[in-house]
Give the backbone structure.
Amino acid sequence: MKNQTIYLFVAVVALLVACGSENQESKDTSNDSTVVAVDTTQPKPVAELVKLWETDTTLTTCESVLYNPTANILYVANIVGIPTEKDKKGFISKLTLDGKIETLEWVTGLNAPKGMGVIGNKLFVTDITEIVEIDIEKGKISKKYPVKGSEFLNDITTDATTGTVYFTDMKKNKIHTLDSKTGKIAELIGADSLGSPNGLFFVDASTLMLATNGDSKFKKIDLTTKQVSIVTEGIDAGDGVEKVGDNAFLVSSWTGEVFYINQGEKLKLLDTQDDKINSADIGYVPSSKTLLVPTFFKNKVVAYQLVVNE
């Protein structure tokens, strides 16, 4: 009987100790979970892109997109063949603002159309070694302006006030002007320091913005002094430029990136390089803050909403 009492006493003590340890472990675990809990809320980026739509793939080697606010339409330049070959295969398409292809081959007979700009009822397009003028109402080529000594004309931007067309020759390291009233072509700047000039944006009578293909820099050109200054670097194969704020721009890299640049600060908004999707000469609709990205070899235009959280 005495041994049974001892065994019972030992069993009760062991049970109490076990319960105590279990309660302590439970308590410790609860404390641990409280300690490691963190707030995962992340601040919003300065700017971001939200995909809206994309066209079908009936466009062919689409190099640039331009918004015409007067006609409320989008123009797309289609190279079709080789970017340097004069094969008469290139054409311009018309798209609605929601990505529907209104007229696939609106204007035909071009070679390798790239940059575009509008002045009044005229659409100007670079076409390898000449500027092509298109009558918008008729949808036909009205004039061609050969550019002597040119090799690879690329982007266009326009000053509607003076009727000036600015355009780049990427291979010759030159920026030219065309007086749309007189048809006169002149060299604005010619220098290796331009770094293989591509994308242009006319800001005002004294300022032109430039994205370079060769030296990966985004630059500002003083039209009065012809001085070129660097805004930011690290944009490989710079292509299109669009102004989206007082000192803010979107700049595309042909390799598949789009950057938001504000006061010289650079933020990458889009990167489709792993998917082998290019982002060529971009367009922009200011009223809806819509970015338009021509994907070159993927044969479609993709639209994104620009959201600025500043």
Observations:
- The chain has one domain: 47-308.
